[in-house]
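Narrative of activities, Objective 1.

The group set out to show that a structural description can be obtained from nothing but a protein's sequence at a throughput compatible with the screening campaign. Below is one input-output pair from the validation batch, recorded exactly as produced.
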Amino acid sequence: MYKNITKPLLISKELKQKIDFICKFASVKYELIPGSIISITDTNIGYVRPHILKVKGNDYLIFENSDIVFKNGYNEKIRLIDLETELKSID
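Output recorded for this entry:
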């Protein structure tokens, strides 16, 4: 039987600061959930679960060292520098 092994990813200080500043300027309350690396034993299958920024019922998927943020899955993407405008526009 296969077993999942999960290792947490640390959120860099720089990324935490960026998210904090963006959310403060947008005047929104948020929750930042650290991502993880999930490996399945006895296989070569692995998955990186991104950091998740939760704001007003929306999930923003954020990867370290990327300037792209995915909204509510991987179909809609925005640039990190446009995140403040996005957060201000949601009700």
